Amino acid sequence: MMSSSREREDSLTFPTNPSSSSSPITVSDHLDSYLQDPTSLIGSASGSYSNEGILSGEIATPSISDVEFGFSRPDFRQQSPISGTVQFYQRHVFLCYKNPSVWPPRIEAAEFDRLPRLLSAAVLARKADMKKETRLTICEGHDGTETSNGDVLIFPDMIRYRRLTHFDVDTFVEEVLVKNGEWLPGAPEKLDGSFVFVCSHGSRDRRCGVCGPPLVSRFKEEIALYGLQGRVSVSPCSHIGGHKYAGNVIIFGSNINGEVTGHWYGYVTPDDVPTLLEWHIGKGEIIDLLWRGQMGLSEEEQKKSQELRRLVNGETTVQGTAKESTETQTDEVNTTACRSQDEHLSCCQGNGSASCCHDPALPEKLDIPDTDEGSVKLTPEKKKGNNKRNISKIPSSKGAAVRKVSAKPTWFESWEREDTYAALAVVCAAASIAVAYSCYKQLS
User: Fold this and answer.
1) In whole angstroms, what is the distance from residue 179 CA to residue 182 CA?
2) What's residue 117's pLDDT?
3) Which residues contact 174 (CB under 8 A, 6 or more apart)?
4) What is the pLDDT of residue 423?
5) Tell me, what DSSP letter sits at residue 391?
6) What is the rounded CA–CA span in Å between residue 211 and residue 66?
7) Integer Cα distance of 402 and 5 in angstroms
8) Helix (H, G, I), strand (E, B) or coil at 24
């Protein structure tokens, strides 16, 4: 893992989106009470969203040790790489419904939760008729917020439908998911920004219940610190698969080409959250050591995609396991963006000709592609003195490793790395010709 020593002097800000589009979802204070008391049962809206039975006896969660199920558990980060662990799918549907404290282990089949149960059954029944492989997940819903109970978010379409009820399920699935049309009772709202979902389904698996809430809390903290409200959102979600990789995070957003992608990360800790915000969301750089896969790619394509990135960044692979390449030229390190440190970084990620470096110093301003307003400047908003970013290390039987992050070189830095030796060779050749000519003149 990478360990960054940059002091966070300032925070990042985005310009306000046009009023014609919906802002990203936010985590309500409703979740705060859950983070403080995971065993509390919080009621939901009335009507089709209220529980029709008592769940308190089923989902009260006992105190769980981080050592057993959290980020210090014995099996944490024992598998590397973890790419190719996301089953192929092309569309992700999120139903906003209550919160993790009242989600039963199988919310899609729960007797007392009609809406998710009926929607899940309808999606499964019409799966063969859908042109896109579709995945359904539950995320937090709380009336009076951007994600009210019954709201449906669809990716990569980046749209939201408001207030689905159990009476509308069959029509919704038919018109939107099967026919790829619009649901007539309500026009879809456009979504902008980046959307982060964190598996926090504690009643389904304790590891997700222990790791999820701290990650949501840290994302909220960093989003507030950098002033990213309205541009980056986070929400807890139900089981997405791969409990052993908890904390599990999915990030939806537009890449540099304007295409909406959904990247999955595993083994994420709260200390990794600033890196995901700065590098994945801010720069479009993939954090390969935590990367599980991507929406729209098969398991094999996910592995090949990561292998290609590693090869581009000067790494070799042996039997599917990434090996850190030997650094033979110290002048290849981008000294303006990286600082030396005692531990070497294990791998880097990115695209194009991005180079591997040590402990990259994070820029004061980032240029973020924006589909509506072009390049967005993330500028400092407030200071937080001497708060150095600690990116968590990977426990391993062979010792801890640190993550390497790629930084895109400037034209001048690229010229130094790629052309310095060529220029020296030309100079030496010219000098040799001059000496030879001088000798020839003397002999003649």
Assistant:
1) 8
2) 95
3) 126
4) 75
5) P
6) 8
7) 13
8) coil
Q: Tokens 């040790």 label which residue?
A: 65
**Helix count and strand count (H, E) for the chain:** 10, 14
d(CA 353, CA 148): 43
Q: Are strands 91-96 and 152-155 parallel, antiparallel or unpaired?
A: antiparallel
Which DSSP symbol is given to 79? S
Beta-carbon contacts of residue 198 (< 8 Å; ≥ 6 apart) = 212, 215, 216, 219, 234, 235, 236, 237, 247, 248, 249
- Which two tokens mark 205? 């698996």
pLDDT computed for residue 212 by the predictor: 97
**What is the torsion angle, in degrees rounded to the nearest 10, for the CA atoms of residue 16, residue 19, residue 22 and residue 28?**
60
Pairwise CA distance, residues 402 & 348, whole Å: 10
Cα–Cα distance measured from residue 14 to residue 192, given in angstroms and rounded to the nearest whole number = 12
Non-local (6+) Cβ contacts of 430 within 8 A are none
Q: What's the pTM?
A: 0.65
Rg of the chain taking only CA atoms, in angstroms: 25
Cα–Cα distance, 306 to 161 (Å, whole number) = 34
Query: What are 86-118's pLDDT values in tens digits?
Result: 999 999 999 999 999 999 999 888 888 899 999
Alpha-carbon distance values, 59 to 100, 316, 352, 382 (Å): 10, 47, 48, 41
> Which tokens belong to 196?
């982060």
Burial class (CB in 10 A: 0-12, 13-18, 19+), 428: exposed
Say how far apart CA 388 and CA 248 lie, in whole Å: 24
Contact by Cβ (8 Å): 239, 116: no
Which residue from 54, 21, 23, 30 is spatially nearest to 149, judged by alpha carbons? 30
